[in-house]
Amino acid sequence: MWDIMEDMVSGKIIAEAMKRNKRNLTPAEAEKLETISGDMFTAVQVAVRSSPLVQRFYRESLEYAERHGSGSPRIIAPWQAQAERQMHVWAMTQPQTTLSPDVIYAMGKRGMKSDNPIRMALILQMQSAQVYLLRKEIIRLLNKMPIPRHVIGPNIMPYPLMYITPEYSLSVATSSEEEQSPLDCDYMLLQASPEGVNVTMPSAQRVNPALEDVRQTINCVGIEFNKVWPDDFEKPDSVRFILAILAFLNSPFVASEPTKITRNVRRQFKREGWNDPNLLTNVVTLRRSVHNGSNSGNTEPLERHNRWWVSGHIRAQWYPSLKAHKLIWIAPHIKGPEDKPVKKKTYVVVR
To answer: Residues 178-211, buried b or exposed e (16+ Cβ, 10 A)?
Structure first.
């Protein structure tokens, strides 16, 4: 029984892993796994409801909904990202949250009495993952960046488990059925496996801050290594934003320093009896790039009469040892001799 749980949590959860382990659970194993998951759900619900972090986020969500009529506050602070993650962990224990057939197939429902053990595995992944916060300026940049054709290699994940929360809900297709009408997606759970990257995403047609009224469906998509994007993908747009995120995080111009919850927030929670668990959130920001404009090649340098701006873009860097590309985001920068003026451009906007 536990080897199956380890498979689900460690990343061996896609079809190839299922082929290697086709044994169904015995009735006794299924019953025990059901009891364990039920006990875990109870513990999760108690922990989340008693968390000052979640309580403060819940209060602010209600106040926001009262002022604006609907919706939820933007996630701009590390403590908010951590609180929202815990609320989604809580939602995973609720019947209002449903698992799509793709998730059940990918996780491997081998003789289980219900999908509760699959939910338990997802909760463990969410609680173990590195948390990343994407603010609106980063999201806008990622949406604009074109992705070059490339071979997806096994070096794209900074961590084996990553929980990515955006400042606001993203309108992305979290399943093939949503290609034409994407729904709100509040987070992305990325998990590295030997075969590729497994991405779990929720979708919700309406947003309500009340814990008792969360409506969402959990979907998943797989990004297999050694596949060519976009040629080998039937729906390439469904993974474009994810590939852009990973390319961005692999760039030397991007910082994602682990950030603690601010001291004043920690003090407030400590007064309420909360033991600081030293939660860290990776807030993604841009570094200031430095380019000297010199020619690093061995050829005779061209004579330049001015300097010019190079727009930010994603480059597909080929790694011969891996026989795959690694996407790297190149920040906007100025090229050309430092003693020359910057060439001005006039942009004509056509409606």
So the answer is: beeebbbbbbbbbbbbebbbbbbbbbbeebebeb
- Rounded distance, CA 105 to CA 118, Å? 10
**Distance between CA 206 and CA 202 in Å, rounded?**
12
Cβ-Cβ contacts under 8 Å for 268 (sequence gap 6 or more): 52, 56
**What is the dihedral sign for C-alpha 202, 206, 208, 211?**
negative
What's the pLDDT band for 338 if we cut at 50, 70, 90?
low
- Computed from CA positions of residues 116, 117, 123, 126, in that sequence, does the dihedral angle turn out positive or negative? negative
Global model pTM greater than 0.85: no
* pLDDT digit string, tens, across residues 101-140: 888 777 665 667 788 888 988 998 998 899 999 999 889 8
Total residues found in the chain within this entry? 351
From the list 229, 188, 154, 183, the residue with the least C-alpha distance to 85 is 188
Reading the block at residue 117, the tokens are 């053990």
**157-to-196, 270, 306, 312, 347 alpha-carbon distances in Å:** 10, 35, 39, 22, 37
DSSP state of 332: P
- Contact assessment for residue 175 and residue 200, using Cβ atoms and an 8 Å cutoff: no
* Residues in contact with 203: Cβ distance below 8 Å, sequence separation at least 6, in sequence order: 174, 175, 178, 182, 183, 184, 185, 216, 217, 219
Q: Which of 123, 124, 105 is closest to 220 using CA atoms?
A: 105
Range name among 18-27, 90-99, 127-136 with the lowest pLDDT average: 18-27
Structure tokens belonging to residue 299? 């050829």
What is the distance between the alpha carbons of residues 139 and 158, in angstroms, rounded to a whole number? Answer: 19
Q: What are the residue ranges spanned by the domains of the chain? A: 2-258
218 near 97, Cβ under 8 Å? yes
Q: Where are the beta strands (DSSP E) in 100-187?
A: 130-134, 150-151, 161-166, 170-172, 183-185
Tokens of 253: 């111009």
Do the Cβ atoms of 58 and 86 come closer than 8 Å? no
